[in-house]
Amino acid sequence: MKTMKKLIYTLTAIFTFSGCDLLDQELPNTIPTDEAIVDRVSAEAAVVGLYNEMQDGSLYGSDAVYATELMAKNMKAVKFQAVWQELGSGIVPSANFHVEDSWIAWYSIVNNANNIIVKVPELNDVSESEEAEFTGTAHFSRALAHFELLRQWGEYWDNTSEYGIPLPTEVATAPIVTPRSNVADAYALIESDLFKAIDRLPASGDPIFANKGAAEALMARVKLYKGEYDSAFYYANDVIENFDYDLQDDYVDIFSEGTSESIFEVDFTQQDFSNYTFLMFGTEAEIVMTDEAAEMYQSNDERGLLIENIGNFFRCTKYGTNQDNGEGNAFVIRLAEMYLIRAEAASRNNGPTTGLPDINVLRARAGLGPIDASSVNSLQDFNDVLTREARLEFPAEGVYWYYLSRLDKLGEVLNREAFRRIYPIPLRELNITDDQAIFQNPGY
Fold first, then answer.
1. Which residues form the RagB/SusD domain (predicted)?
2. Which of 20, 108, 241, 380 has its Cβ near the most Cβ atoms within 10 Å?
3. Could you give the maximum distance between any two Cα atoms of the chain, in Å?
4. How far apart are CA 38 and CA 271, in angstroms?
5. What is the phi/psi pair of residue 125, to 5°?
6. Burial class (CB in 10 A: 0-12, 13-18, 19+), 121
7. CB count, 10 Å around CB of 91?
């Protein structure tokens, strides 16, 4: 993969499927036929293209993270752009720019992955090990994109629900409509892709590339959302105990990129930069931390050191502080989440206090004492502890919202209707399809 790493910085002009090109299509899942995978070089460029598409500003380039932070009231919009104001209010219309653009960007990844999965096995100049790594990366990327789509637009908490997501698996060379699946089928494809990724990807490596550890970590997350707690515990425990990941001794060191705590991160450079610092540290900041989120830290909690009062606003500094420097990576999966997954799975299977030791590991790293087990007498008590610790551990990483959504806490914490735990299907998609193929989520 060393050659591939060089390609990330040199092949941006010839990526097989440009996300920008796809924005001009009627549907997000088409590719031009003259940009097919025909040899090893174009196959490798297509794989690099998957990572490039994850850098999209609508996805891990900032917006997918900041959108959920706004909805969870960890962040607030301080200018008047409708897209941020709508997300911050929690009353998100189906024509919201982020909702529309991120849907397209996720499906751009899906279509690129489909092309790699179909075309690479047909090539004669690709070795067996290269084929395994290329297709393994594609299966991981498709699983990641489909899971993000499911937890943002589908009723992921109900395996019997008809409100899943479209699951295109063929290479689309012309605009087509893929009907919405049910939730069970969405989980089945996501898990199938992850099993293939686990089988084919290298055991370890630079966290800016997919590997077996990242695939197992994503599987742990998927199993938790699906409510399969034995499996969630198994995969989270395997990642913690049997891979070369370690928690950093100091919380602030996590964000120096490529540490032993990082499982999967999206790489940004001066050539391929993110919008994290631009949005928060621009000449006129657009998004900042809420006072509530900034002031929830105890004075000795090291996690609060990365939230500072700068220019009369609280701002998170984990991605840097220079609006013109967008090199800070996006941390998609890190080891701390595996501790929370293992903690939750244990508590749901064996009683509400059994997960506290893993939570206390993170608290100890932050400089805090343990949670008193006598204060946790029910799963509700445990869920309250878990949600609070997720908020403290992952500010500005797009994690806290999904704890509120998954644990059905929108009414309790944000005073919102439960249906708003997912986005509406984008208006653009409804306008170019029919109600039988892609239908709106309940409540919208």
1. 298-407
2. 108
3. 65
4. 27
5. -105, 20
6. exposed
7. 13
How far apart are alpha carbons 316 and 276 in whole angstroms?
10
- Fold held by 2-175+189-264+331-428: 1.25.40
* Residue 315, Cβ density class (10 Å: 0-12 exposed, 13-18 middle, ≥19 buried): buried
373 Cβ partners below 8 Å, 6+ apart? Answer: 353, 356
Mean of pLDDT values over 367-372:
98
- Measured from the Cβ of residue 388, the count of other Cβ atoms closer than 10 Å reads 15
Q: Give the integer Cα–Cα distance in Å for 425 and 70.
A: 19
The residue-averaged pLDDT of 226-234 equals: 98
Assign 310 to helix, strand or coil.
strand
What is the Cα 269 distance to its own chain's centre? 20
| Average pLDDT over all residues of the chain | 91
Residue 377 burial (C-beta neighbours within 10 Å; 0-12, 13-18, 19+): exposed
Count Cβ atoms within 10 A of the Cβ of residue 308 and give its class: 0-12 exposed, 13-18 middle, 19 or more buried.
middle
Instruction: State pLDDT tens for residues 78-107.
Output: 998 999 999 999 999 999 999 999 999 999
| Residue 12 in this model has a pLDDT that exceeds 90 | no
The residue ranges of every structural domain in the chain are: 2-175+189-264+331-428, 273-330
- Decide: 243 and 204 in contact? Cβ < 8 Å: yes
Element containing residue 330 per DSSP (H, E): strand 330-334
Q: Which of 22-31, 337-346, 373-382, 407-416 has the lowest mean pLDDT?
A: 22-31
* Mean pLDDT along residues 394-401: 98
DSSP state of 166: B
Q: What is the distance, to the nearest Å, from the Cα of residue 405 to the centroid of all Cα atoms in its chain?
A: 14
Torsion region of 92: left, alpha or beta (phi above 0 gives left; psi -120 to 50 gives alpha): beta
pLDDT band at 35 (very low <50, low <70, confident <90, very high): low
224: nearest Cα among 337, 144, 336, 146: 337
DSSP string, 229-258: HHHHHHHHHHHHHHSS----SSGGGGGGSS
